[in-house]
UniProtKB/TrEMBL annotation:
Keyword presence, S-adenosyl-L-methionine: no
InterPro entries for this protein: DH_E1, PDH_E1_Alpha_Subunit, THDP-binding
Origin organism lineage: Bacteria, Bacillati, Bacillota, Bacilli, Bacillales
Keyword terms, alphabetized: Oxidoreductase, Pyruvate, Thiamine pyrophosphate
Name assigned to this protein: Pyruvate dehydrogenase
Amino acid sequence: MAKIYEKEINLQDYSKDDLLHFYEVMVKIRKFDENLIQLMQDGKVSGFYHSGIGSEGVSAGSISRNLRDEDYIYYNHRGCNQKIAKGVPLSKLYGDFLGRVEGTTKGLGAGIVHSADPARGVLGQAGTIGSQLGISVGTAYSAKFKGTDQVTLVYFGDGAASREPLHGSLNWAGLYKLPLIYICENNEYAISSHISETHSVKEHIADWAEGYGIPNCVVDGNDVLLMHEVVKEAVERAKRGEGPTFIEAKTFRHRGHFEGDPYDYVPAEVLKEWKEKRDPIKNYKTRLIDEGIFTEDELAHLDNQIDSEIIAAIKKAEDSPLPDPERIFEGLFA
Ligand SMILES: Cc1ncc(C[n+]2csc(CCOP(=O)(O)OP(=O)(O)O)c2C)c(N)n1
């Protein structure tokens, strides 16, 4: 059975700079998301949007101060969280949603999936849930083959884990001891289906990794520092050539599956508990203040800076032109 990852974390073991960085990344993710939802409500952005609010700790903790530009991530369909943590500029992400040349696809349309930023190790995604699990074996295998120390992190939900690509991926990663880290973002629901209705597991999704000889654990994904520690250990293992790790991060989404989902299938008291008692940003902020690392004013100052950064990013994206219609066939190879 998968172990629950626990560790006593002393804030004094981290630099103030790192502690502030985790806070900054989580707040940036949340504010990016809230502003994007506002753009949708203003009729400026259309299509589906899968909000990542509530799960900022998983992305900030796993990526920030653990990965370099040359390490790869494969994000999931709530993946603005992961792209922001990996350093993709906010104006480029907004540009993708607004269909502007500023976007990573230079206006050819991306939304949450299909955007890519290869210079920062973000190689894109496909709309088919779980497809990234197969592709991630490719970059992990190439790093091993070329003898580099690059690691690959692949993000997927509990719903994606119930599909067959996970098992093919685990088999190859386990067999070749690939530098691949699985981050299963378990928010309990795949659209409106609860995990208890869809998974044949002993207790945890991470238990499946056991059968492939892959070290695994379950962690509170809403504790940004715990998330950071567990992934740090996995990255070190991967770099030592000891192979993959499977991490099941427990979290919850604050909003429905997509913007417009009434989200009436989750009991109100469950959602209230996650929002009020298990919010990754609120809890981390309280800890930073209670332990005297930062004052409320210092954090509020950073919040204001992030607000300004977001306004500037939206403006940059909106001021950028729409793509020239003649580019419609650009990048089309079939
Ligand atoms: C193969 C496939 N089946 C169904 C869908 C539609 N779909 C999009 S997201 C989703 C649920 C995914 O749930 P999960 O992996 O738990 O992620 P969460 O949305 O909870 O973050 C489904 C069924 C799809 N995109 N691809």
